[in-house]
Amino acid sequence: MFVFSKASAKKIVHKEHCVFAAKIKMTNRVYFYSLRDAYAAGCRPCMYCSVLGSDFIKNRNKIKEFCAENNMECKWENGYIAITTSIDKWRIAVSDKAPYKLIIYHSNTAGISFGKRHKGKWLLEYHIQKMKHKDIMTTLQGIAAHTRYKLEDPDLPDLLRERFASITGKTMPKGERKGKKRRNKEKKWEERVLKRENVNRVMALLDGLKT
């Protein structure tokens, strides 16, 4: 059961046992059976009793330290966590039905982007990133790894490289990025080339026998 105060303009929804819910006057209480109903009414989750908010407060120091080490900014914003790296932006939200799971939104600042609906509102220029993390810290680690992976891409657009330089004052490295899929693709291509060369060699020998 969830509750919010109809007298509050912030429309923050709380779990029934939340200390802030206890402060709401009985005459001002509006109850919801699910977060989906609360979101449909335009409410946003409490920072202190929600799954995401309580995890954020509990690990605030760890999150702050990790973000400082990885050149990231992380903050609570209107019921979700907003993350900014040197090249892109992320949002961590929670699903509106049990079991409550994290939903990771990613914005491609390079160009192509998609709009997704969350809590009754459109998050423009974001798409859902398929990350199966159960808490904020492991999600941040995944985001940091994703950012490092993109920074090593030699084909990364110049726009991102310029943005990285303007924020960090450093030149973005142009190393070689070879993920597992790319390595497997190159391996298969090399095998195809080798087979083709062997076939050509055999054909050349047969042509030599004819003469």
Write structural notes for this entry.
With 211 residues, the protein is an alpha+beta fold. It folds into 3 domains: 2-45, no CATH class; 53-168, no CATH class; 184-211. The chain has helices at 35-40, 51-58, 60-69, 136-151, 158-168, 180-210, and strands spanning 2-5, 12-15, 29-32, 44-45, 73-77, 80-84, 89-94, 102-107, 116-118, 121-123, 127-129. The strands form 3 sheets. A 5-stranded antiparallel β-sheet has the order 5-6-7-8-11. The chain has a 4-stranded mixed β-sheet with strand order 3-1-2-4. Strands 9-10 form a two-stranded antiparallel sheet.
Give the helices and strands, then pairings.
Blueprint lengths: L1 E4 L6 E4 L13 E4 L2 H6 L3 E2 L5 H8 L1 H10 L3 E5 L2 E5 L4 E6 L7 E6 L8 E3 L2 E3 L3 E3 L6 H16 L6 H11 L11 H31 L1
Parallel strand pairs: 2-4
Antiparallel strand pairs: 1-2, 1-3, 5-6, 6-7, 7-8, 8-11, 9-10
Helix pairs in contact: 3-4
